[in-house]
Amino acid sequence: MKHSGGNRGAVRNEKAGMKLSVVVITKNEAHCIGDCLRSVSFADEVIVLDSGSSDKTVEICRGLGARVEVTDWPGFGPQKNRALDFARGNWVLSLDADEAVTDALREEILQVMEAGVSNVYMMPRLSSYLGRPMRHSGWWPDYVARLFRRGSARFSPDLVHEKLVFSERPGHLRAHLEHEAFTSLEEVIDKMNRYSSAGAEMARQKGRGSSLGLAVLKGLVAFLRTYVIRAGFLDGREGFMLAVSNAEGTYYRQVKLMLLNDRQR
C-alpha cells in the first residue's frame, strides 16, 4: 500500500482549530505497521498501545514519530479503550495495524472534521485476502465506524469482534479504508486459532452451550453463507479459501466451547 500522507492535512487541521488523534493497538506488527502509520502522517498525534511485541514494532512506531505505550493484553475491546484514553485530540481515528488510510479518505476525513455535521463516521473498508481485494464474500463494502469526536463513543468490552458503541446516527464516508487482512495462509490459521479460543471463552462466560453436531452444522452454514449467499464464488479461489477458513473458525469455536463446558462439569 502506498500513500503520500504529506503534511497538507496537518496544516488544514491546524487552521480549522481541531486536533486529530490516531490510535492503534499492536503486537508483533512489524510487517505492516509502517504502512499504517505513514498513511496517517497528517494527524496531530499518533498513539500506539503495544502489548509486548518481540519484533521491531515498537522501534518502527517510535521511528515514525508515534507515541508508544506498552501494557498487558486484556482483550481487543478493553485494549482499544485504553488506547482511546491516551488520546488528546478533539477527533479520534481508530485503526488496526494492518489498515491504511488512502489519499482520498484522508481528504474526506479532513473535510468532515471541518464541517462537524456528525460526531461519528463510518467508512467502507476494502479487505484483501492473500493478496486479492475481496469484492464479495460478505467483505465489501464492510462499513466500519472509525472516526469520531472524542467523548462521543467507546468500544464494547468484547475480547474479540469489538464494536464502537455510540448513541447517535453516524455519517457515512465515500472513500474506503484499505485492509490487508491476511497476507499468508499461516496468518489465517494463526488468527483463526486465537479468535476461536477467545470467542469460545466469551460464549462460555455468557452461559452458552455447544456440541459436536452443532459445531459441524454451524461450520457448514458459515461456508454456505460466505461462498453461496454472499457470492464468494465470484472472488475466485481466494473466495473458496475464505469460505473454508470461515467454516473452520466457526467449527473450532464451537468445539472449544463444548470442551470448556465439559471441563467445568
Q: What descriptive keywords fit this protein?
A:
seven-stranded mixed sheet; four-stranded mixed sheet; 265 residues; 2 domains; Spore Coat Polysaccharide Biosynthesis Protein SpsA, Chain A; alpha/beta; 43% helix
Structure notes:
This protein has 265 residues and is of the alpha/beta class. The protein has two domains: 8-182, Spore Coat Polysaccharide Biosynthesis Protein SpsA, Chain A (Alpha-Beta Complex); 185-264. The chain has eight helices and 13 strands. The chain has helices at 8-15, 33-38, 57-63, 76-86, 103-115, 185-205, 212-229, 236-264, and strands at 20-26, 45-50, 67-70, 91-96, 99-101, 120-123, 125-129, 132-133, 144-149, 154-155, 164-165, 171-172, 177-182. The strands form three sheets. Strands 3-2-1-4-9-6-12 form a seven-stranded mixed beta sheet, sandwiched between helices. Strands 5-13-7-8 form a four-stranded mixed beta sheet. A hairpin with a 2-residue loop joins strand 7 and strand 8. Helix 7 runs antiparallel to helix 8. The longest helix is centred in the C-terminal third of the chain and has 29 residues, at 236-264. The model is unreliable at 4-17 (pLDDT under 50).
